[in-house]
Amino acid sequence: MTSCEDLSRHHLPLTDLFMQPTTHDQWSDHAVSRQQLGHFEQHGFVSGIPVLQPEQVEVLREQLSRLMDPSHPGNPLFYEFHSNESQDPDTVLFHALGGWRIEKAFHDLLYCPRLRMIAYQLLGTAVRFFHDQLFCKPPAHGGVVSWHQDYSYWRWTQPMAHLTCWIALDDATMENGCLCYLPGSHRWGLLPISGLSGDMNAVEEILDLDQRAALAEPVAAQLRAGEAVFHHPLVMHGSHRNRSRSPRRAAVINYAADGVWSHPATLEGPGSESFPILPEGQPLGGNFYPLLFDPQRELAGETSQIPSLPSSLGT
Asked: Does the residue 289 lie in any domain?
């Protein structure tokens, strides 16, 4: 097997897939509205945001097909690689972390200006990359992702100042297993882990009566290919089986506010010894946690014209 360069060494775009803004006005063109920020603050997510052009989606799909091959020379660079993480033997859920280290388009997805600007608006401060994920559900028998909170798996970082962006590489519908949310559940506090890829309703055992009632009224984040949904680290979300004739592929970027630090204690990272957990007390940084957006640099200090939520550091 030939070796593959670890792209985490590069903290700049490697291709021309995403044109980079050079002025404040160009950055402003990528911002979401105050109304969209308000929706995120109230409900814990904001959906249907166009982030990729069709040609960019096609490049990512092509490189994703290579990444899903276990014989890819860069496979050892994944933090996690699960050809099938489903606990149901009749379904398949491909899930991997670390594709940004292996294929250039997924590396450069971190530097998509639209994603970087929105992450800044929602976190309210400078933004670091935390880690990426790939989720793929094949036609007809794609597995579920159970109701969960992302921060349940990230408790080795403090404070809780994170953000998830889920990007559809296919149209995501109810039929093929789009993400669903429980609006307002980001105010429930941190709950115990009830599993990620087994019973969709396993979460019921850790919820009170009012929270269980909310399960009856989920909101489906149906997206077109190239659109994204951003969500809070505590909002409850999950996705049902893919029963359609089409695949449901997605790329996920998880962000952290600059200043978040490592607090591993006895807590482990996301399921793998190869995940780069930093020593106790060390701020996220270095090769694996590059700074993606610094408002003082990108906006030359002129941040007041671009709406953003207050900094989530310390919350």
From this structure: yes
Q: Which residues pair with 122 in a beta bridge?
A: none
Distance in angstroms (rounded) separating the CA atoms of residues 131 and 129 = 6
pLDDT of residue 305: 84
Q: Kindly list the distances between the CA atom of residue 171 and the CA atoms of 24, 54, 61, 149, 302, in Å, as whole numbers in the listed order.
A: 32, 12, 13, 24, 37
Where does residue 274 rank: exposed (0-12), middle (13-18), buried (19+ CB within 10 A)? middle
Q: Name the domain count of the chain.
A: 1
Nearest-angstrom CA–CA distance, 13 and 103: 12
Smallest CA-to-CA distance from 203 within 223, 222, 221, 182 is with: 182
- Cβ contacts of residue 169 below 8 Å, gap of 6+? 57, 60, 61, 64, 225, 249, 250, 251
Quick one: tokens of 278? 């930093």
Query: What mean pLDDT do residues 111-140 have?
Result: 97
| pLDDT given for residue 201 in this prediction | 81
Q: Tally Cβ neighbours within 10 Å of residue 267.
A: 12
Give the domain range for residue 246.
Answer: 19-298
- 77: helix, coil or strand? helix
pLDDT tier at 313, thresholds 50, 70, 90: low
Single-letter amino acid, residue 314: G
pLDDT of residue 266: 55
Residue type, 121: Q
How far CA 43 is from CA of 39, 47, 230, in Å, comes to 6, 11, 11
Q: Say if residues 167 and 116 touch (Cβ distance below 8 Å).
A: no
Q: Give the pLDDT confidence score for residue 212 in this predicted structure.
A: 93
Which CATH number fits the domain that encloses residue 222? 2.60.120.620
Q: What are phi and psi of 4, to 5 degrees?
A: -135, 135
